[in-house]
């Protein structure tokens, strides 16, 4: 970038770009934003020690800056919506920057740098002109009401869901004359019935992760262990680690000295001998 | 335990003295099983076996092996083609007498058929003739190698294929196959000597798809790809001599998990279940450690494998060095209820590895030793793992079960001895099946047998101490392991077999105690003891007068003579007394220790040394007795009915620390619905230290008491305030706390209490509205989000509670049930059930416990008339493809519907399912449920009871279930429940309405057709020991001369005739019913083909004959091929046999004539008589009967 700037040399400095007059207010906004960005780019260039720049190079840099900022905005919006919010928070931005490969830690230092150019902006108007203070009802904190609410809410959801499922699919009924009051979703056989019966549902898995801390501890333990081994072995014994990774059970192995388990079921399958002594005949 | 050389030698010599006598004229030393092709699509298996045998007699010319359903292509002995015959009389038990339909007859015939192929009697389905070229070789007792090529096509038993019908390769679909069966069932999947007593070393090879794993016994030596690299071959070696019956196989796309604690242990499960497998098996190493420690013996095999498969035959099946489990035992860490159950299964299978797999049995009558020891050490494991309370509770439960069963059916005999096979000595004449063979046993009997075996082991332990007991086990194990390491001394291997006498000898050697009386009482004899106890306190003498009576006349009971422990809790402490129960002494005086009136404020010492304060105000002021217990240690297999005052039971419940005593007092308190009982139970419920199972049963007892006291009950419904206090929020008592099941004891209580509460009834015999609302609120506010454990069992129990609250609908003149007249309470219940059942479709619970409970609840609603009774819903849930628990629950409902609504259609549907369902366990279970909840019984008039049903069931047990012993026995049980032992009453009278007694010269009504009311007497009359005239027929070993005389003189009813005919079959030297019968004669017995000689061309004997003919070339004619009489058979037997068979033909023939000329039948009989004798004269010289022909031309005789 320095080189590019150098070749740019001392072009027309302080060029204010494409000032096609437009009547469209949207275009006006666009132009205004563009102009602000150009000011920023120019001041950054000045800060970097340039005295002048070609119009085209400033324009390019502006374009780059604009897309970078737009990407931050877009990405932050996604993160924010992903967590079911509408207002982005600082952490959304941080995550976005991290995601884009930006080292966030350098940002405060950069902001406090000495040779920083200060772009003067007009003063904010009085706070009351823009500050919003929404009012809410007092949040209900009564335990009984909360439980009551949670219970009926869940029940309503469940009922609505099952009714919907029953409406859209095949049903069975306990009463011949009435199929709608107590609709039962029809029983459908599974091809592999034991899987649904035995495996915990995703919801339960999630719960398990949330509530079961001891299990987690164990897991991280084994992870750490695996990590240690691979770090120790990283240089010399690459083969060993690959064996380790293949073998799912070894991560659970507590005795460190035995790296390879000699279990016949883990041994590689042998290639057939070229010629059998006696072909099997019937 | 290392043995010194001298010691070993001494032991060996001693054993050698009375060593095991093989029933076979050869010794098997090694067997190769090679399955080179398994086709999951066609469900077929192709392979060969090679048996290495050493003849033990010089003139061995035929070799009998076991094989069922296998198609045998070719047999070679030492590379020479050998002729063979394949015949299995158990395929179709009764050929003739199709009109009989008499269970007595069937059971005898079935036992005879099983005997005819019983490997323990040296018999087998497959008879191979040693080629004459080898006779010289045999005479030198040189080795023979028998090579048999076989295939299996769509096996119905023995091997079970599970092939889900989804897209993808077999491995992707999770298709798998495994061996299964009840007792020795290995013959179903490869030819072998299917006996627990014939040990040999094994080489096992299985070629499977490259994506599959074959798990089998012994060490996996290597895995080799085939040339096309699409398959691989698993080579296993089992160097420890093992019986064929302990050989197993499981093939599937298993996930492999090496046990992190024991690398020689490998676990296998079906795809996607690895996380569950990891959790489930994470405990196994502790079981290993426990057994190895108490037995001071290492696990005998060099490796161990557990395989978890779908559609399991039984939950746990132990084989040499591997166990096959049901996949439904797998669970995640969130499941509470299944965890102890699964661990128990694991421990059980491991105990059987030591005793059952490694140590095998000599004969069926020694089975109890193995089952007893494995059950006993499993009990020790339980004690260590779950605590003494759980252990004692379990022992009590088992004891109650065996007592209930024996009293109901009349006794379980652990060590049956068959004195020469005389029917007179039949030790189990009260049963409708023979106990001579494991394969004729009712499944329920067998489970009770195992239960009794381990209880008796416990009794032996009580007698000789645990230390000695474990020493005996160790001795058995070390003897066996010494023997097993003798690679080439196969005669030593018999020391790996345990026998009753060997075991008892070991006990007396080790302990120096004589346990013979104990053995005689519990092992050689069936029945339990029934005590009735009552007492009086004699104040003057300060003596407790205890009266103990026994009932030893009812079926299933026996007399007990010997010591009996009685514990008396007095004010001054607890005292043990040992009474001597003798013939005539009923009264026992026990001196009391507590002399005077109680001291106030004195603590009362208990048995365990604890001293407690008691409120003694309830006591009888004159008596120092708090409570009395008879046989507190359960050292007799007994039922005790003891009478003591209600306050004594209450003291016992509150203060006796033994859970068994608490349990007993809870049971007794049901009869005392008083406020004091109520208080005692409530106190127990609240007591945290009390064993949770006791508290659980206290819940139900409290509900019962509350119902009895309904008019005087005060306060809220029983347990409600207690539950509120324990499990509901402090601020809002109607809302239950969010679930936290960290304390399992309170979890179980929380689950149970509402179920018991729902049983409460008000004065109108309805469930109180308050209780119903309470349960509905529990469901509504149930919140499991913060819980570490799944609440599926809890929610299922809540549905059970709802079902319990249902009471019969008030019906106005049988109106049809519709929505409009639905009871509002029921509407609420139905609402919940609907929601739960529907949610299950979206978020299924573990093992679908909630669906199961919902189905049961719906059936309850139907049965009580709230919802129209309709089996359609259950039938859809019973279909193949649902989880097995759901299916069973649905089937249970259908069975119940069949009974209540007397529906023929549903009964047919169930019977079809018994025949066609792909899952053997489900088939077995339907039969079992039908037997438990029969649509009608033998003394009942029912429209369902008709001839077609009899025929259908008869066919089912006669031939339809030949591929599964357990299923056949289940069918026999059902037949017995429905029709009893004699001829079903719904059948029309057979043609032979009247029979003649030639001796007494009078005609009597055919006993087989006497109507039901008389039939019971008739059964007794049929009992051979009480019917002198029949004795001769019941004895198959009396000389043939005698029999002929009796035959002529006293044949007075067809019953006797049949048993006579049958007994012929039981002769060891007589070929079985259809053994050498060509296909034509078999078909001749089927009425439709009465004259046909060429029908049923597909029967097995025929093709094997054909193949045999091909194999041996042209030297022998087909008739001669079949001639393999037993060398030692005397000629007379064959003559007799032919007479008998002829006789029966004529008998048959006469039936028809009788029909025409009933009036003249006296004359007819005379005619028949003459005819017979003529026939007999002719027989030996004609070749009309194949059997007689063979006997004459037998090589051994001509030699």
From TrEMBL, chain A:
Ranges for domain Bromodomain associated: 29-106
Family the entry assigns: Belongs to the TAF8 family.
Pfam families: Bromo_TP, TAF8_C
Bias kind Basic residues: ranges: 268-282
Region (Disordered): 1-29, 232-282
Gene Ontology BP, a term: cell differentiation
Transmembrane regions: none
SMART domains registered for this protein in UniProt: BTP (SM00576)
UniProt subcellular location: Cytoplasm; Nucleus
Species of the source: Colobus angolensis palliatus (Peters' Angolan colobus)
Keyword Transcription regulation: yes
Source species, domain of life: Eukaryota
Name recorded for this polypeptide: Transcription initiation factor TFIID subunit 8
GO cellular component: cytoplasm; transcription factor TFIID complex
GO MF terms, alphabetically ordered: protein heterodimerization activity
Chain intervals with Polar residues compositional bias: 241-254
Keywords attached to this entry: Cytoplasm, Developmental protein, Differentiation, Nucleus, Transcription, Transcription regulation
Classification via Gene3D superfamilies: Histone, subunit A
Main location: cytoplasm
Subunit note: Component of the TFIID basal transcription factor complex, composed of TATA-box-binding protein TBP, and a number of TBP-associated factors (TAFs), including TAF1, TAF2, TAF3, TAF4, TAF5, TAF6, TAF7, TAF8, TAF9, TAF10, TAF11, TAF12 and TAF13. Interacts with TBP, TAF1, TAF6, TAF10, TAF11 and TAF13. Component also of a small TAF complex (SMAT) containing TAF8, TAF10 and SUPT7L. Forms a heterodimer with TAF10. Interaction with TAF10 is mediated mainly via its histone fold domain while interaction with SUPT7L is via its C-terminal region.
Automatic annotation (TrEMBL), chain B:
Biased composition regions of type Polar residues, renumbered to the chain: 1080-1102, 1182-1199
Pfam families: TAF2_3rd (PF25316), TPR_TAF2_C (PF25577)
UniProt-annotated stretches for the region Disordered: 1-21, 1068-1121, 1136-1199
Transmembrane regions: none
Primary localisation category: nucleus
Ranges annotated as biased composition (Basic residues): 1144-1171
Gene Ontology CC entries for this record: transcription factor TFIID complex
CDD domains reported in the protein's UniProt record: M1_like_TAF2
Assigned protein family: Belongs to the TAF2 family.
Protein name, as recorded: Transcription initiation factor TFIID subunit 2
């Amino acid at each position: 970038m320095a080189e590019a700037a150098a070749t740019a040399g001392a072009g027309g400095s302080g060029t204010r770009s494409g000032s096609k007059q437009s009547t469209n207010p949207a275009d006006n906004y666009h132009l205004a934003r563009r102009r602000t960005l150009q000011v920023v780019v120019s001041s950054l260039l000045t800060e970097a020690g340039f005295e002048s720049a070609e119009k085209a190079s400033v324009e390019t840099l502006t374009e780059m800056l604009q897309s970078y900022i737009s990407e931050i905005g877009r990405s932050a919006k996604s993160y924010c919506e992903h967590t079911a919010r509408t207002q982005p928070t600082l952490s959304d931005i941080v995550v976005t920057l991290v995601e884009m490969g930006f080292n966030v830690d350098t940002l405060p230092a950069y902001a406090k740098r000495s040779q920083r150019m200060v772009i003067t902006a007009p003063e904010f108007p009085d706070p009351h002109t823009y500050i919003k203070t929404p009012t809410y009802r007092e949040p209900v904190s009564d335990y009984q009401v909360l439980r009551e609410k949670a219970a009926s809410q869940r029940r309503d959801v469940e009922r609505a869901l099952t009714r919907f499922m029953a409406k859209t699919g095949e049903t069975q009924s306990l009463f011949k004359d009435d199929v709608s009051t107590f609709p039962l979703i029809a029983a459908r056989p599974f091809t592999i019935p034991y899987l649904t019966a035995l495996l915990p549902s995703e919801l339960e898995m999630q719960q398990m992760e949330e509530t079961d801390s001891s299990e987690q501890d164990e897991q991280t333990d084994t992870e750490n262990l695996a990590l240690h081994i691979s770090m120790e072995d990283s240089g010399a014994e690459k083969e060993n680690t690959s064996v380790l990774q293949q073998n799912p059970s070894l991560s659970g192995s507590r005795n460190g000295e035995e790296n390879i388990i000699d279990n016949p079921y883990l041994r590689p399958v042998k290639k057939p001998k070229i010629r059998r002594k006696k072909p099997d005949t019937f | 335990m290392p043995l010194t050389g001298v010691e070993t030698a001494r032991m060996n010599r001693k054993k050698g003295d009375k060593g095991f006598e093989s029933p076979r004229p050869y010794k098997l030393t090694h067997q190769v099983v090679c399955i080179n092709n398994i086709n999951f699509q066609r469900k077929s298996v192709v392979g060969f076996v090679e048996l290495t045998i050493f003849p033990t007699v010089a003139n061995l010319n035929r070799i009998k092996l076991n094989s069922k359903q296998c198609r045998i292509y070719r047999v070679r002995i030492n590379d020479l083609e050998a002729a063979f015959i394949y015949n299995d009389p158990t395929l179709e038990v009764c050929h003739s007498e199709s009109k009989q339909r008499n269970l007595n007859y069937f059971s005898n015939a079935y036992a005879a058929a099983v005997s005819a192929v019983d490997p323990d009697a040296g018999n087998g389905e497959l008879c191979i003739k040693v080629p004459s070229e080898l006779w010289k070789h045999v005479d030198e007792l040189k080795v023979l190698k028998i090579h048999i090529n076989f295939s299996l096509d769509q096996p119905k038993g023995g091997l079970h294929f599970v092939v889900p019908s989804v897209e993808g390769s077999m491995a992707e679909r999770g298709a798998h196959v495994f061996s299964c069966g009840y007792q020795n069932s290995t013959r179903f999947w490869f030819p072998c000597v299917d006996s627990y007593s014939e040990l040999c070393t094994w080489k096992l090879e299985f070629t499977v798809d490259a994506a599959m794993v074959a798990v089998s016994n012994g060490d996996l030596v290597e895995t080799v790809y085939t040339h096309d690299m699409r398959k691989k071959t698993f080579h296993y070696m089992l160097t420890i001599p093992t019986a064929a019956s302990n050989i197993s196989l499981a093939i599937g796309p298993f996930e492999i998990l090496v046990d992190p604690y024991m690398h020689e242990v490998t676990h296998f499960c079906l795809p996607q279940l690895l996380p569950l497998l990891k959790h489930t098996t994470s405990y196994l190493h502790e079981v290993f450690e426990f057994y190895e420690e108490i037995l001071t013996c290492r696990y005998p095999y060099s490796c161990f494998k557990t395989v978890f498969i779908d559609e399991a035959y039984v939950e746990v099946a132990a084989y040499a060095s591997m166990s096959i489990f049901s996949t439904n035992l797998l669970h995640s860490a969130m499941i509470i209820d299944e965890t102890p159950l699964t661990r128990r299964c694991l421990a059980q299978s491991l105990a059987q590895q030591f005793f059952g797999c490694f140590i095998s049995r000599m004969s069926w009558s020694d089975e109890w030793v193995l089952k007893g020891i494995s059950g006993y050490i499993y009990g020790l494991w339980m004690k260590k793992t779950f605590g003494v309370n759980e252990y004692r509770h379990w022992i009590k439960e088992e004891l109650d079960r065996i007592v209930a069963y024996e009293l109901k059916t009349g006794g379980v005999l652990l060590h049956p001895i068959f004195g020469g096979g005389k029917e007179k000595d039949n030790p189990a004449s009260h049963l409708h099946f023979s106990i001579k063979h494991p394969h004729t046993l009712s499944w329920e009997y067998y489970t009770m047998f195992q239960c009794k075996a381990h209880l008796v082991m416990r009794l032996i332990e009580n007698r000789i101490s645990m230390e000695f007991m474990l020493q005996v086990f160790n001795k058995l194990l070390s003897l066996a392991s010494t023997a097993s390491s003798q690679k080439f001394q196969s005669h030593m291997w018999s020391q790996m077999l345990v026998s009753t006498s060997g075991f008892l000898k070991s006990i007396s050697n080790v302990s120096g105690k004589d346990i013979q009386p104990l053995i005689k009482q519990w092992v050689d004899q069936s029945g339990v003891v029934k005590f009735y106890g009552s007492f009086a306190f004699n104040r003057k003498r300060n003596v407790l007068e205890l009266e103990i009576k026994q009932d030893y006349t009812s079926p299933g009971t026996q007399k007990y003579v010997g010591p009996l422990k009685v514990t008396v809790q007095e004010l001054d402490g607890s005292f043990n007394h040992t009474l001597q129960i003798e013939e005539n002494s009923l009264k026992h005086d026990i001196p009391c220790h507590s002399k005077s009136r109680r001291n106030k404020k004195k603590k009362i010492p208990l048995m365990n040394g604890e001293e407690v304060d008691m409120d003694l105000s309830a006591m009888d002021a004159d008596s120092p007795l708090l409570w009395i217990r008879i046989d507190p240690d359960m050292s007799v297999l007994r039922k005790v009915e003891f009478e003591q005052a209600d306050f004594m039971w209450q003291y016992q419940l509150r203060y006796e620390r033994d859970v068994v005593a608490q349990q007993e007092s809870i049971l007794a308190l049901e009869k005392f619905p008083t406020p004091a009982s109520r208080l005692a139970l409530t106190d127990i419920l609240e007591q945290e230290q009390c064993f949770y199972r006791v508290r659980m049963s206290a819940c139900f007892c409290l509900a019962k008491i509350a119902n009895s006291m309904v008019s005087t009950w005060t306060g809220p419904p029983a347990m409600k305030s207690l539950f509120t206090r324990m499990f509901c929020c402090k601020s809002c008592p109607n809302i239950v706390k969010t679930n936290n099941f960290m304390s399992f004891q309170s979890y179980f209580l929380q689950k149970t209490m509402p179920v018991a509460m729902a049983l409460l009834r008000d004065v109108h015999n309805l469930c109180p509205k308050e209780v119903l609302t309470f349960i509905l609120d529990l469901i509504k506010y149930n919140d499991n989000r913060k819980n570490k454990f799944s609440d599926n069992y809890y929610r299922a129990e809540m549905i059970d509670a709802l079902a319990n609250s249902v009471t019969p609908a008030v019906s106005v003149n049988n109106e049809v049930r519709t929505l409009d007249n639905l009871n509002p309470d029921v509407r609420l219940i139905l609402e919940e059930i609907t929601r739960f059942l529907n949610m299950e479709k979206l978020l299924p619970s573990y093992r679908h416990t909630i669906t199961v409970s919902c189905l049961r609840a719906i059936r309850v609603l139907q049965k009580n008339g709230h919802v129209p009774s309709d089996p359609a819903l259950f039938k859809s849930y019973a279909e193949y493809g649902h989880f097995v628990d759901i299916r069973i629950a649905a089937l249970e409902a259908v069975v119940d519907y069949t009974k209540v609504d007397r529906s023929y259609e549903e009964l047919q549907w169930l019977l079809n399912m018994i025949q066609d369902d792909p899952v053997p366990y489900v088939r077995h279970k339907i039969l079992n449920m039908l037997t438990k909840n029969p649509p009608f019984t033998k003394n009942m008039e029912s429209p369902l009871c008709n001839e077609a049903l009899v025929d259908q069931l008869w066919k089912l047990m006669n031939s339809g279930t030949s591929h599964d012993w357990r299923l056949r026995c289940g069918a026999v049980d059902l037949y017995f429940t429905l029709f009893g032992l004699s001829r079903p009453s719904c059948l029309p009278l057979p043609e032979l309405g009247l029979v003649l007694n030639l001796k007494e010269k009078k005609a009597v009504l055919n006993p087989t057709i006497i109507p039901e009311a008389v039939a019971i007497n008739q059964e007794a009359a049929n009992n051979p020991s009480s019917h002198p005239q029949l004795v001769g027929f019941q004895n198959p070993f009396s000389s043939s001369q005698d029999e002929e005389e009796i035959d002529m003189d006293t044949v007075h009813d067809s019953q006797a005739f049949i048993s006579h005919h049958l007994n012929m079959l039981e002769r060891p030297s007589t070929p079985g019913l259809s053994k050498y019968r060509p296909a034509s004669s078999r078909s001749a017995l089927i009425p439709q083909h009465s004259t046909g000689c060429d029908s049923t061309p597909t029967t097995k004997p025929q093709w094997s004959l054909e193949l045999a003919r091909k194999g041996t070339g042209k030297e022998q004619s087909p008739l001669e091929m079949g001639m393999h009489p037993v060398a030692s058979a005397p000629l007379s037997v064959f003559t007799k046999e032919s007479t008998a068979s002829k006789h029966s033909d004529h008998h048959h023939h006469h039936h028809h004539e009788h029909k025409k000329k009933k009036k003249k039948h006296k004359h007819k009989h005379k005619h028949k008589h003459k005819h017979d004798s003529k026939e007999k004269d002719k027989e030996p010289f004609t070749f009309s009967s194949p059997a007689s022909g063979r006997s004459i031309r037998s090589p051994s005789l001509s030699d």
